Amino acid sequence: MALLIRNLSQIATPRGRGPVRGAAMRELAVYDGAVIVIDGGRFVYIGPERDKPAEIVIDDDVDAGGATAIPGFVDTHTHLPFAGFRESELNRRLRGESYEQIAASGGGIASTVHATRRASEEELTANVLARARTMSRYGTTTAEAKSGYGLNLDDELKQLRAIRSADSPVRLVATCLAAHDFPPERRGDAAYVDEIVERILPAVAEAKLAVFCDAFVERGVFTREQGERVLRAGAALGLVPRLHADELSDTDGAALAASLGAASADHLMHVSDRGIAALAASDTVANLLPGTSFFLMSDRYAPARKLIDAGAIVSLSTDCNPGSSMTESMPMVIQLATLQMKMTVEESLTAATLNGAYSLRLAGSIGSIEVGKRADLVLLSAPNYLHLVYHFGVNLVVAVFRDGKNLS
Ligand code: NIG
Ligand code: FE
């Protein structure tokens, strides 16, 4: 059942089955006046309609109405299964309180932990599904989703089961972030790290509820040593490490992530030159989350230009969470990456698709519009891909296909 998508103004995509670094992040394949053919959930032809091999028999076609096709976005850092909101923290920040001060006074992660523990698994599943549907409407076809608001065995497992149970339009990949913070009832209790290592991670691995594990190494949260212990224990159980690194202060998290062979080092607003060099020399993806700087009203963004120019693999994600970045929108993130972090539109598109796919260990099958890959694509109401940033603040997505299925 081959499907032909015709009347496309443009197709724009990075290329390859591995990560893209440095100047190569600016090299998109751009086709004007080409068609896309999908069969068996995969791309089988991209090019001028007249050159389509005769053996590809078309059963159905879609008129794209002059849209631009880009790969589905791959959002590799989200905290999807949470309950409750924290909108009241916004006015507190406007009055001058910092994210850390709000957390220290019982707001912040702790307040979401209480709400998430109170929620049933069914409620969390419904929350994941609702957010995944929003993501899909903004062009995301694959997303990572973390636990980390349970902070005990039962509630971490509940969050991860909610990710698994959601009948999501977005392909979801789960991460156990039991090391997101200390439980509110046992702040600073080092024995919680023992519990993560001895009970939570083994149970998660045993039930195959996550592919990755993650830790928040930060001033006042987990030390480097504790983060390393958690991630090494996870890795020994087959859970690939990721790391919240150098978000609010420089804790040498980037170098730690690189030394552990982590899939990604995320945030990096305070990464040092040493951390940048360590990432550039590694296969650990520098995952940048500019929605967090924007929403926390910080003028400090991750040094995207330095990271790209040094040769690090850079990706972009929403960090969708109720405290520091309440958005499911990858186009918004791309706009911030370009307009605030000075990434080119081409770099941003590569970061938001193929490099994200690489960090999820999926670059062989998703992340670009290429023959043989899964047919995950977005149609934008735009004459070319530059409109993704140029025409900001509106949703240009008119259709989303995942595994060749039209979700819109
Ligand atoms: O990625 N860094 C820690 N975790 C989240 C924030 C979580 C929250 O505020 O609830 C982040 O920014
Ligand atoms: Fe996060």
Notes on the protein architecture:
There is one protein chain. The chain is α/β, with parallel strands linked by helices. The chain is built from 15 helices and 16 strands. The strands form two sheets. Strands 1, 2, 3, 4, 5, 14, 15 and 16 form an eight-stranded mixed sheet that branches. Strands 6-7-8-9-10-11-12-13 form an eight-stranded parallel sheet. β9 (212-215), α7 and β10 (240-245) form a beta-alpha-beta unit. α4 (121-137) packs across α5, α5 (153-165) runs parallel beside α6 and α12 packs antiparallel against α13. The radius of gyration is 21 Å and the shape is globular. N-(iminomethyl)-L-glutamic acid is lined by residues 108-109, 112, 216, 244, 247, 292, 319, 321-324.
Gist?
By secondary structure, the chain is an alpha/beta fold. The chain is built from 15 helices and 16 strands. The longest helix has 17 residues.
Shape: globular
pLDDT averaged over residues? 97
Portion of residues in beta strands equals 15-25%
Low-confidence stretches: none
| First-residue to last-residue Cα separation | 19 Å
Supply Rg. Answer: 21 Å
Q: Structural class, judged by helices and strands?
A: alpha/beta
Helix content: 25-40%
Given the structure, what is the number of helices?
Answer: 15
Q: What hetero molecules are bound to the protein chains?
A: N-(iminomethyl)-L-glutamic acid, fe (iii) ion
Give the biggest sheet.
Answer: 8 strands, mixed
What is the count of β-strands?
16
